[in-house]
Amino acid sequence: MLGAALLLRRCTAAGLHGLARRARQPPAATAAVLPARCYSHGTQESDEEFDARWVTYFNKPDIDAWELRKGMNTLVGYDLVPEPKIIDAALRACRRLNDFATAVRILEVVKDKAGPHKEIYPYVIQELRPTLNELGISTPEELGLDKA
Question: Mind giving me the DSSP string for 85-141?
């Protein structure tokens, strides 16, 4: 998101600079000036590649608490609710780090990201139930955090 804003600012600044320069030139010289185009030439990542990238990130055996929080912060910044397999990998990383608080916070964030779509969070919890039971992680609702 920040990169797109920076690119837009550069394109805008380049365009305005070019307009100011053309205004000072005689009319004959302006006919030869071509507008600059600012396009993104990056490749589009498929949903499967996106999921695999994040699962791989959270499955790193040497991930530390900072990397886990940084990864979740970046993931939450996207306009999406993470797939259950990504959340599963993040919860397993929490278990490897013995970080129960972050595991519960991840579940809170998923509920928050679901927003007004009330059917998403129960689906995610349903898909994660075996992992939650295996790792001994309680949901925010089981802990009473949804009433605070």
Answer: HHHHHHHHHHHHTT-HHHHHHHHHHHHHHHTT-TTHHHHHHHHHHHHHHHHTPPPTT
For residues 42, 46, 51 and 56, what is the CA-based torsion angle, rounded to 10 degrees? -50
* Nearest-angstrom CA–CA distance, 73 and 129: 23
Q: What is the DSSP string of 54-79?
A: HHHHHT-TT--HHHHHHHHHHHHHSS
The one-letter code for the residue type at 1 is: M
Spell out the residues 6+ positions from residue 103 whose beta carbon is closer than 8 angstroms to its own: 91, 94, 95, 135, 137
Per-residue pLDDT of 7-66, as tens digits, reads: 445 544 555 444 444 445 555 555 556 566 666 677 888 999 999 999 999 999 999 999
pTM of the model: 0.71
